[in-house]
Specification:
Blueprint: H1 15-30, E1 37-43, H2 44-50, H3 52-57, E2 80-84, H4 94-98, E3 109-118, H5 133-142, E4 147-156, E5 161-167, E6 177-179, H6 184-192
Antiparallel strand pairs: 1-2, 1-3, 3-4, 4-5, 5-6
Length: 196
């Protein structure tokens, strides 16, 4: 018998880790070559109490979820619910866009999923230092060791952070790497959306 719940995330995972993995799985279902996606993270129990109709439309469990272990019980009433936001504007750099965000008090955290090209550590020594950002991106795109990665990064107002990385060449839920410091720069940029 498996120790995993129906959605496949570890039982011991924190609510933030579970939310990151849920968003990663959602993004995976959309395929690759997708635009960046922004999510508000809200407390599931608070959402159910404050917005029962919205909670029902989102498929969240009712108040008796903890007593109904059946497959149709829905999501647990504890945890975080990701709510996708409007599309990010075209042509605006991601860091500039994040600088324009202000979240209402009901939002506990936020998450972003974005695809990027990265190089393995063995290739970092060969990166030219005299290139601007656009030239560097073009150089990485031509590099034979480049890897496409989808990064899902989430933060809470209290500073807790989590990330999930999925390589295109190893596109399976069992190959997703998670950790709190995998993408520190993006985590810091997301955290700043709560302090502005």
């Amino acid at each position: 018998m498996s120790n995993l719940p129906l959605d496949g995330t570890p039982l011991a995972a924190s609510p933030l880790t579970r939310a990151v993995l849920e968003i990663d799985e959602y993004a995976s279902g959309l395929g690759w070559d997708q635009p960046a996606r922004l999510f508000a993270l809200v407390d599931t129990a608070q959402l159910q109490a404050d917005e029962p109709e919205l909670a029902e439309r989102l498929g969240l469990a009712g108040p008796d979820a903890d007593t109904d272990p059946g497959p149709d019980a829905g999501r647990p009433t504890t945890g975080l619910t990701p709510i996708e936001q409007d599309e990010l504007p075209d042509g605006l750099p991601l860091d500039e866009f994040l600088g324009t965000i202000a979240w209402p008090d009901a939002v506990t955290g936020c998450a972003l999923t974005v695809e990027r090209l990265m190089l393995p550590p063995t290739a970092e020594g060969s990166v030219p230092t005299d290139l601007d950002d656009e030239q560097l991106a073009a150089w990485v795109a031509r590099h034979p060791e480049r890897q496409e990665v989808r990064m899902t990064v989430a933060v809470l107002r209290d500073g807790e952070r989590e990330a999930a990385l999925r390589l295109r060449e190893k596109d399976a839920a069992t190959e997703v790497l998670t950790g709190s410091n995998l993408v520190p720069g993006l985590a810091e940029a997301l955290t700043a959306t709560f302090t502005g």
